[in-house]
Amino acid sequence: MIGIVLFMSFNSGLKAQYSKSDSTYKECFVGSTLFMLGNLSPVNRPDYVQLNLGYRITGKDVISLELKTWKYAWSLGINPLTNDAYGTPEEEFPGYIRDFGFALAYQRFLWKGLYAELNVMNAWQTFVNEDGNKIGNGFHIFNTYRVGYHVKLFKDRFFIQPSIAITHRPYSSKMPDGFQQLNDKWSKFLFGEPGLHFGFNF
User: Fold this and answer.
1) 104 - beta bridge partners?
2) Is 135:95 a contact under the CB 8 Å cutoff?
3) I want to staple 153 with a disulfide (CB 3.0 to 4.6 A). Which of 3, 95, 144, 158 is the partner?
4) Which CATH number does the domain housing residue 176 bear?
5) What is the pTM of this model?
């Protein structure tokens, strides 16, 4: 899907870099991610919600605030697309973790619509056991290093951003027993996470 979108954008003649002299230039945007479609899954539904609020400092420099919440029952170090351990009973937490957090992101356009992004999220965690009872709180920092392509749509009223990323968990507070042991088995880095953000310019 990402490959098709990239192919179409490279061959459509669209220029995604912005200039304040453009008649369609908008400084602000609001958006989210298509990862929320995972909420339709009948198994391990993440109850994922994300809201992005962005501001274009220049035509090449963008900052944004992302508000997020989701839950998960397997370590964030397991890639669900490439690792068969994801979803297995032996790697499942004895309950789940609910994250509430915000991320600050900086994008730099490198060439046409190609951009690089640094995303740093602070997340507060709630640990819930198999009986549905809260058993603790925690905090972690979750970084995302992303490369993607910005595609303008409908005279630049909307946009999509297919991307690929490396995620990194540089800090986590102590987890309850059962959670900590499973989480520590996996790398703090995850390579090849796909993304597809979308937004509305105003």
Assistant:
1) 65, 120
2) yes
3) 158
4) 2.40.160.20
5) 0.84
Q: How far apart are CA 108 and CA 64, in angstroms?
A: 12
pLDDT digits (tens, 9 = 90+) for 9-44: 444 444 556 665 565 678 999 999 999 998 998 777
pLDDT mean by block of 10 residues, the chain; 202 residues: 45 53 78 94 88 96 98 94 92 97 97 96 98 97 98 94 97 97 96 96 95
| Full domain range(s) for residue 40 | 2-201
For the chain, the DSSP string reads -HHHHHHHHHTTT------TTSTT--SEEEEEEGGGGGGG-SSS----EEEEEEEESSSSEEEEEEEEEEEESS-TTS-TTT-TTTT-GGGS-SEEEEEEEEEEEEEEEEETTEEEEEEEEEEEEEEEETTS-EEEEEEEEEEEEEEEE-EEETTTTEEEEEEEEEEEEEEEPPPPTTHHHHHTTS-SEEEEEEEEEEEEE-
Q: Which of 155, 164, 168, 150 is nearest to 110 (CA)?
A: 150
Locate 144 and state its tokens. Answer: 């995302």
Q: What is the pLDDT of residue 16?
A: 54
Q: According to the model, what pLDDT value does residue 1 have?
A: 45
* Total domain count, the chain: 1
